[in-house]
């Protein structure tokens, strides 16, 4: 007679525990908390960092020129809901959050969040964080899939992502012109295809 496997309940982490982990560790490992689940992402590879830097650089000048707030990159605590803390790779805070951004308190609102997928982050980025960003009404959430060379665009009410492979346009509230990024050229630069 076989024994039935007993399912153990998943440990529920607290924000204090996650912040204590962040304070004790070094080496680029990222600790995030969504719905009681600890999401751990090891230090990224060079291609990941290149994708982050190029996306941030394109967004930074656009957001500044359009006076839409501030574009930045991880690590920075974003607490969109009580007991949840994420650190998106690239993000845009609205003007009302700039003072909070410059201080020590976690940011509470985002206009845009972008994550660059890696093997260790795909589930968290596509499922847990996406649900959080949609619930929190982040107007745009971009998942940059380096392997497929596409960006998945999610908006708060979307049930499926828009898959973009040639270019992405974003026209946030208050902008006089859209942000446009040619994705073929972006991915070519990320991977050094043009070298």
Brief write-up:
The protein is an alpha+beta fold and 195 residues long.
Describe this structure in words.
- The chain has 195 residues and is an alpha+beta fold.
- It has one domain: tt1808, chain A, CATH 3.90.1570.10.
- Helix content is 30%, strand content 23%.
- It has five helices and ten strands, in the order αββαββαβαβββββα.
- The chain has a six-stranded mixed β-sheet, sandwiched between helices.
- A hairpin with an 8-residue loop joins strand 9 and strand 10.
- Helix 2 packs across helix 5.
- The longest helix has 21 residues.
- The termini are far apart.
- The N terminus is likely disordered.
Task: Give the integer mean of the pLDDT values.
Answer: 90
| Fourth-tier CATH superfamily name | tt1808, chain A
Instruction: Estimate percent helicity.
Output: 25-40%
Helix-strand makeup class: alpha+beta
Number of helices: 5
Task: Say what the CATH topology is.
Answer: tt1808, chain A
Rg over C-alpha atoms, rounded to the nearest angstrom: 18 Å
Q: Key features?
A:
disordered N terminus; 10 strands; tt1808, chain A; alpha+beta; 195 residues; globular
List the helices and strands and how they pair.
Blueprint lengths: L14 H10 L5 E5 L2 E5 L4 H21 L3 E4 L16 E4 L4 H5 L9 E5 L5 H14 L4 E6 L4 E5 L7 E3 L2 E4 L8 E4 H9 L4
Parallel strand pairs: 5-6
Antiparallel strand pairs: 1-2, 3-4, 4-5, 6-7, 7-8, 9-10
Helix pairs in contact: 2-5
